[in-house]
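Example (one chain per record):
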Amino acid sequence: MGANLKDRTIVMSGGSRGIGLAIALRAARDGANVVMLAKTDQPHPSLEGTVHTAATAVEEAGGRALAFAGDVRNDADVTRVFEQAAERFGGVDIVVNNASAIDLSSTQDLPMKKYDLMQDINARGTFLMAKTALPYLEQSDRAHVLTLSPPINLAPRWAGSHLGYTMAKYAMSLVTLGLAEEAREAGIAVNSLWPRTTIATAAVRNILGGDEAMRISRTPQIMADAAHVVLTRGMDAGTGQFLIDDEVLASAGITDLSPYGGEAESLALDLFLDPPSVTE
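Predicted structure:
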């Protein structure tokens, strides 16, 4: 199966910045083809990067890129991005469900417009990407759907803290759980990947606590390296799994996580993960 992603074609939702872009650039260093479906066509006043600057970065890193300015909530956009990926690169091998919306408001404070946005992007968008990809993935000898979503933790405190967001993220994870079973005979691996700690992204800075939250977070590169391990292993390493970044890296012999930054003494555990003392 090989240990790299050279000439493999990845279709990713989002990816203009943050974890998605880091995953794309890691794949590009192998010589992968990266197709990005993202909304940021023009520069955003408070967010770095567009789908076009991301595509340029992919090509500078050694990959081939196709930027598609569109919306994962739009059926026609999703259909067309897969058509264009197949036309340009001859097929699709990997889908990365990276696009996600977040609002941690309580039930009473969460506007239904925000609830609908999270459901449309996280739940429906992930399902739509996977559904649309299936005919293409069935033609690949190393097909994989990787979704950035957490283990389904039914400890009441998670739903109790931010019910709307929890529902949307767990819906993404249910796509992994169900599709892995549905696509098993077709040889399509379906897994989820989630970080042990918060990751230094715009969402963490803007929603979870500014510069202090960034200080106690690891860089997106840890998720990129973990995703690379998962995607280069393929079906033989399992399907229907909810994988955590540091555990994936440890399984590949990578135990020194200091290059990924964050102050080791005060790293913040990510959402939906209980500390060891809670589960012992």
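Caption: The first helix runs from residue 18 to 30.
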